Amino acid sequence: MPKNRKVVLKSHPQGPVRLEDFDMVEDETEALRPGQVCVRVDHLSIDAFIRTTLDGGGFHQSAKLGGVVPALGVGTVVESTDAAFAVGDVVTGPMCSQSYAVLPVAACGKVDTQLAPPTAFLGALSIATGLTSYVGMKYVAKIHGGETVVVSGAAGAVGSLAGQVARLLGAGRVIGIAGGPDKCRFLTTQLGFDAAVDYKAGDVTAKLAEQAPNGVDVFWDNVGGDVLDAVLMNLAVEARVVLCGAVSQYENMANVRGPKNYLKIAERDASMLGFTIFHYPDRYAEATATMAGWLNSGKLIVHETLEVGLDRFPAAVRGLLDGGNTGKFLLKVG
Ligand SMILES: NC(=O)c1ccc[n+]([C@@H]2O[C@H](COP(=O)([O-])OP(=O)(O)OC[C@H]3O[C@@H](n4cnc5c(N)ncnc54)[C@H](OP(=O)(O)O)[C@@H]3O)[C@@H](O)[C@H]2O)c1
User: Fold this and answer.
1) Is 53 in the pocket of ligand 1 (CB under 6 A)?
2) pLDDT band of 334, cuts 50, 70, 90
3) Cβ of residue 280 lying under 6 Å from some atom of ligand 1
4) pLDDT band at 100 (very low <50, low <70, confident <90, very high)
5) Ligand 1 mean position to 223 CA, how many Å?
6) Is the CB of 183 under 6 A from ligand 1?
7) What is the pLDDT of residues 189-212, one digit of tens each?
8) What are phi and psi of 330, to 5 degrees?
9) Ligand 1 atom 37: the closest Cα is on which residue?
10) For residue 178, how far is its CA from the centre of ligand 1 (angstroms)?
């Protein structure tokens, strides 16, 4: 078996995650038991949820001190004890921050490389990115034709797809909220958003009121905090606020700040609801087929930010939280 290089958690972050919270180690790749495969990890998906695993007693699962960090990946089977998986098969699964992953076959999904390139299965065709955007917009937000939809974290992986999915499901006006002029320009010139608001330039409440004079029918929130409060001030009557995530709070999970302006929900006969994609497995097949169709017909634009080298995993996680990615953030491991 090959040597396994791993990024392990050295200390639980106290506040913002630091590069010193991780270590790079090398050890033997464990021997396979029946029903397992060994996968060479080719790309890792750098996702916001990773930050929530670092605290101990995390929001999703937890990274253990001295252990690898949870992360989704795509890779190539190099050894198999299961007849359904052959050496050379490309698979996705919870590969974590390491160069070789030994996984039960039940945790692996075979990638159809005829449908799309392998990295698409960490982006537009991944459960935690593309399928989240499709299922959330269609079955949670329940977009009606002509509605005004606002997406926060709009230039990130989920947000950039969620805004496009809203349009493809019939939204009338799609507005993105993102950090900085470059990301805002990217949304309007490359992804077809109707308008973009730069939350780092201040007064999101007033700027959004200009862009959505009749109010916001659907708010897809990836961010929470001040941005959520600003959008609550702009809700239309019977608006739906969909809580997809709250990345602005992930470095302070012990003291999450709730919305100050939640009474606007009552005033506007609005509703606020959350969802977790893993509770919608019966929608995965439809979501994958629809997203693949849109992707391959050019209706869905994807953008990737690429970091190279497993040793860059800590910097990539830090970079995502600092807004260093546009679109899907991927780490090429090899
Ligand atoms: N509900 C579900 O089942 C589900 C599934 C998957 C993901 N999610 C959620 O989807 C959201 C997006 O995740 P992702 O993995 O696609 O990450 P991402 O959007 O690609 O990256 C995170 C982005 O958040 C923005 N950000 C960071 N700190 C911020 C702050 N304090 N205020 C405002 N924006 C901030 C940054 O963009 P700027 O440069 O614009 O600041 C950054 O690029 C997360 O909340 C995640 O938890 C939910």
Assistant:
1) no
2) confident
3) no
4) very high
5) 6
6) yes
7) 999 999 999 999 999 999 999 999
8) -120, 150
9) 323
10) 10
Kindly tell me the number of DSSP H helices and DSSP E strands found in the chain: 9, 15
Q: Tell me how far apart the terminal alpha carbons of the chain are, to the nearest angstrom.
A: 16
Position 132: which residue type? T
How many angstroms does the Cα of residue 209 sit away from the middle of ligand 1? 23
Q: Which pLDDT value is given to residue 56?
A: 82
Identify any residues that bridge with 21 across adjacent strands, giving them in sequence order. Answer: none
Task: Give the model's pLDDT for residue 196.
Answer: 98
Among 247, 256, 325, 328, name the best residue to mutate to test ligand 1's pocket (greatest count of ligand atoms within 8 A of Cβ): 247
- State which H helix or E strand residue 183 sits in: helix 181-189
Per domain, the residue ranges of the chain are: 3-123+303-332, 127-278
Instruction: Indicate if the pLDDT at residue 220 is higher than 70.
Output: yes
Kindly state which CATH superfamily the domain 3-123+303-332 is placed in. Answer: Medium-chain alcohol dehydrogenases, catalytic domain (3.90.180.10)
Going by pLDDT thresholds of 50, 70 and 90, the confidence category of residue 62 is: confident
Contacts 24+ apart (CB under 8 A), 106-113: 106/35, 108/37, 108/39, 110/85, 111/74
CB 85 within 8 A of CB 78: no
Give the distance (Å) from ligand 1 centre to CA of residue 274: 15
| CA–centroid distance, residue 53 to ligand 1 (Å) | 15
**pLDDT, position 13:** 96
Determine the distance separating the centroid of ligand 1 and the alpha carbon of 296, expressed in angstroms: 25
207 lines ligand 1 (CB under 6 A): no
pLDDT confidence tier of residue 58, bands split at 50, 70 and 90: low
Mean pLDDT of the region 224-241: 98
Supply the mean pLDDT for the chain: 96
| CATH number of this structure's domain 127-278 | 3.40.50.720
